[in-house]
Design brief:
The protein has about 140 residues and is an all-alpha fold. Helix content is about 85%, strand content about 0%. It contains four helices and no strands. It has helices at about 1-35, 40-70, 80-105, 110-140. Helix 1 runs antiparallel to helix 4 and helix 3 runs antiparallel to helix 4. It is elongated.
Amino acid sequence: MYLFLKYLHILAVIGWISSSSSMSLYLIYKTFVLKDENQEKERKFYKYLVYLEVFLFSAVISLGLSLYFLFYEDFSITWLRVKILTALLFFAPMEALNLYFVVKAKNIEDYKRYDRFVLIISPFLILFGLIIIYMAVFKPD
């Protein structure tokens, strides 16, 4: 059971990271490099991709906490504590803001504000993502 839950957790993480990064990078490129103002179809598709991203993030959190409560229950383990706290205190609010911006966006100006938000938080998302991966692989004490 443990390995199956871990397998599902890893699949959810891969899906979440894929959905959160691919379309954002493309739209930022179109907005700031190509300066393409006609993005209505891409933005509509991106809304659905954000919904998928939030669903997959919820699966990541649910499966991760299930693994913790079923098999660890020891919050003194440093690598596990860092992973859980980073996911709940950093990634969860970022996903909530991401969903807020996308649902609120009605015109190109709203999307440009959202794109700036993504540009500002992207380095932090990458940094904290790498920290979580490091903790999952090396499990330092």
